[in-house]
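Aim 2 progress update. The chain analyzed this quarter is reproduced below.
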Amino acid sequence: MSIALSAKRGFLLKEAPGGGRWKNRFFILASGTLQYYDGEMGLTDSGKKPLGVIPLLGSTVEATATSKSDFGFKLETNSLRRRSKYILACQSEEERDSWISEIEAEAARVSEKFKLMPIDKKGRLFREYGKEFRELFFVVSEAALLYFDDEKMTQPLGAVPLPGASVTLPKKARKQKNCIRLDCNVQGDDKKLILAVPEDSEYEAWKTILKKNSDVNINSAEGARAVRRATTVMGAHAADPSEGPEVEKMDAIGEDEEDEEEETEEIAKTEEAVDDKKAAEEEAAKKAAEEEEAAKKAAEEEEAAKKAAEEEAAKKAAEEEAAKKEAEEAERLAEEAKLAEEKAREAEEEAKKEAEDLAKAEEERIAKEKEESERKEAMEKERQDLVEALAVAEKEYEELVEAEEKWLKEQREAEEAARAAEEAAKEAEERENAAKEAKAAAVAAAEKHAADLKAAEESEAKAAAEWQEAEEARLAAEQRAQELEQAKASLEAAQAAAEQSFAEAQAKREELEESLKNAEATAEAARQSKEKLEKEKAEYEAAVEKARKEKEEMEAAEKKAEEERLKQEEAERLAREQEEAAKKAEAEALALKREQELAELAKKKEELEALEAAARAKELRALAVEAREKVSSLEKDDPKYGDFEALAEKAEKDAEEAEEVARKEEEEAREAEAKAEAERKAAEEAEAKAEAEKKAAEEAEKKAAEEKAAAEAAAAEAERERLEYEASKAAEEKERKEKEEAERQAKEAAEKERLAAEEKQRAEDAAKAAEEEAARAAEAEANIAEAVVEKEMEKEISDAKYEEELQEAVDSSYKAAEDRLEADKAGHEAANAEASASEADIEAKQAAAASEKAAADAEREAAEAAGASDEVKKEMDEADQATAAADKEAAEAEAAKESHERSRQEADSARLKEMQERAEKDAAEVKMLLARATADDKKADAEQGLQKAGIKLVTNGGMLFKYQRAKVKKGSSGKPHKKQCTMSQAHGLDWGKNSFRVTRVIKGPSTFIQENISPTEELCDRSFHVVGRENNDKSGAVTESEVDFFCETKQERDLWVAGVEALIE
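Predicted structure tokens:
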């Protein structure tokens, strides 16, 4: 092992591992290790092996007091394969501090160099310990194999040089697959390594890299670096009987049969070596006495040589100083390499952040596309709803047309029914005349029956012979006589009642004629209603046509919006592609830049190694020169001449090899520099390309933004048309509801009139009964009349039902039309007119129904008086039940009407209140807008005036001179301070850390200024003061106060006052 000239060296006390025993050892600090020997090492003692080598990588050192000396210190290492604590002691405090500082500096240097080590291959592998495998992190660097606990690589567990190692397959199978056996050129646990590669794809790669490094010659420069790397990490240790065991072995569970055989052989060899060593020591003891005398003489010679060496050491101090400077230069390069590494880490973090930003942007783009898809689906749904609404409207229009046709048909039938009612009235008159004639005929019949009775009495005497026949005739005659007597009494009563009620019947006839006139009026109203319905039909067709056009316009707007959206998507896609290309180019540029930085690091590392190699070569060359000078100073017959000659030749050979290594390192440094230059050029080209891609991406993004704005405008236009369409539909719905309300009120009024008419008809039933008594005399004619009246009544009931269905159809038609008409006053008036017409129609129908009912009641009574049949009575009873049910339904309808009326009144009240509130709100908004417009006009005039005066506004403000009242003393000049004031809508005036909400602004100075300063007239013309609430932003206090300002000119003062007044208003 060679010894560096510039290394720190000297004797230290070292405590034995068991404690209590102290040994004096010679320590040398060099190459990241602390080596110790059993005696002093001179510059020429390069072939002697140390007792131990302590690695300083990851070590710590601190001063500590011991029982042996007060100048001790403790050195601890983190290696798991060596004893981690060493207790050392010096002769003085200065010496101890010097050793501690030198050890700490060397440990820092080797740690920094370790961080910059190049990595050829790294990954997780399994290592066999006994029969178990443990997973570790392995790294191949500079032909050395290092292994760690994890990927952080903070402190290696071990390291072995690979040059000269044997890479083979294990002889026996293991638990793990892909196993590799590595026999290294070291002693201890790392002599044989069994490694297992967990990934099949990595097996050949690991095998190749291990084989490649094992083929390196251990005597070459690369082999020497591998040995230094392993030594620096783990150290080396030689046999030292006084030291005790130094190696703490890893946990071993057992060895397989192959390892046990090898261990047995090694133990046997070790025992033989111990025996040989004992014999050699005995012989050495014998020779010791013989050589003691020679040693004394040699000591004297050595003393002379030591003096010469001291002189030579003084001579070489300058050389050591130069070497120190070179070491400082190397440290500086190491610092630069460290900074470059930090810069590379920062670049890596920046690249990582950019990747995260890119991922975030991608997520935002996906979310935006999703939102756009949802908006498109919503628009499509709205379009479908509009299409369905249009289909419903068309269907309602068709139903309205069908209802209109049905109404026309029913109107014609109603007219025919009116004519039939007129004919029925004429027939009723004819029946009345027939009833009178029947009365006369009944009287004549009675007289005739009396004559027949007299003839029968005469013929009874004559028919005595025919007794049986006469008896039967007699019985029949008696029966007939009884009937005639009853008929006579009834006719007399009926004649009296008929005479009494004739006048009432005549009045009823007049009422029927009035009802006929009302029916004619109803028919006229129906014709008017028909005309109105035709007009509404035309308006509805126009509304449908308008809706169809609006639909077409909306579809066109949607189509335009869809085209704009597609353009926007295409532009956004192109922008994304450009952006991705720019980011890709930027990432490539960043990668090339990182490669450039790594190349720079490699260059600096190679330069550092070249400097180290040059320094080592220089040391070896100096050692060779020293040895050669020593040889030249000796005579050839001197006994030491041959030894020094061999040492000189060996030193020269080592120097030549070191110079060769330095030359190679210098060549590698030049190659690394060339590579770094090439990487720099590539990085610059990549940056230029990335910049071009970025500009293209920005242009594409700008274009996409323009397309997006156009699409948004088209979408806004489509949305506006949709809102207008919905507003028109809302207006139509409101109009329909109002018409329904008017129609409901008309129906309620008609229902009320109908009930009143029914009450009137019930009061007149008695009069109608008298009229019906007049027809009782003629049984046959009364039955026929009853049947006719019954049929007519059924027809009227059917007509009433028909009228109700007709009314429902008309209501349905109105409802369908009202959905599409605008609500206005003319519509309400038309609805009221329609309600009046319907009311008149209903009254006429009710009057006709009441007349028919009265006629039916009269006929029924006449039928009962004349002995009507049971079937006719049954039919009359059913008619009475139907009438009672109708009365009940009328009562329920009246109750429902009253409830609806109350709800309508409440709704009208709420609607009126809402309209009032809306009107008040609109008035307030108009007032506020007018005030704002006035303030804006005043403010604009003020700004225009300031600009004309040459005053530059700063945020609607400028420089003003403000009086500080606390600094104004009576009788002083009162010079104000210049302040930057800003006019604002929130406060009025702001300056510094204060804000002032102005309530009043006055031209001229305040009373305070006039009393304390007595300003001139010119100053008064240029001043103004404001009154309001001042807010101190620092303390938060609010005070009522006034503040004085003055301007450069009077015109400027007037403009400021106008601007502040505008803000106040």
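Residues 375-460+476-588+729-858 form one domain. The chain is about 70% helix and 10% strand. These observations will guide the mutagenesis experiments scheduled for the next reporting period.
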